[in-house]
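Can you please make up a protein's amino acid sequence together with its fold in token form to help me picture the idea?
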Amino acid sequence: MRKKMVAGNWKMYGNLLENKQLLAALVAELNGVREDVIVVCVPYVYLPSTQNELQNTTIAWGAQNVSQYEKGAYTGEISASMLSDFQCKYVIVGHSERRMLFGEDNDVVAEKYVAAQRAGITPILCVGETLEQREAKITEQVIEQQLMSVINVAGIESLSKAVIAYEPVWAIGTGKTASPEQAQEVHAFIRAGVAKQNLGVANQLIILYGGSVKANNAPQLFAMPDIDGGLIGGASLIASEFITICRASRH
């Protein structure tokens, strides 16, 4: 039986006071929920304070990006070993905003995935299509390319130490959401593709949906057989919303 997982992506929001209040609310309501995996992925500079607030709780923390390089003259970059210093358990790689705004292609994403795993950090690998790609009916082709770029470098077994997040780019921050059936169709395609190479890995692989998940649509999305939880953007910054979404994953 696969675990359910809900991961919050704070993006470039928050400050020390707001974060403290948000984390306190999450701990009060969600600490001790061991059957689920609950994660908050915070801006780099808030990793120390987040670690301080969440250590000795069952809520994990992670980062939103990582360098593909181990060390060196890469001004402004953060390595996986640096994340490990703050006991990061997870890191998001290949988010559509990194791909589109910062030019990260499939090869760079694959390098970041490998760098995270080398440091013992679980990558949350984001895949997904744009509206143009969906309308051109090449969604599956795009996602297969994104996945194979990682599998070709790291091997299919590496997915046993990873999480995949399907994020239709056209549904991020737009208020649009893929219907539960649309999302399920892509999740099933991803799992079937992995199963062709390794059925055991496919059966245990956590595949999250990320695309304007809210408290009011989470139950319908999470009820789908191949949707194992969510990668939550804006709603993860509102304690009541995020708590409700986390509770929806249990049913």
The chain has one domain: 4-248. Residues 4-248 form a domain with the TIM Barrel fold (CATH 3.20.20.70). The first strand starts at residue 4 and ends at 9. The chain has a mean pLDDT of 95.
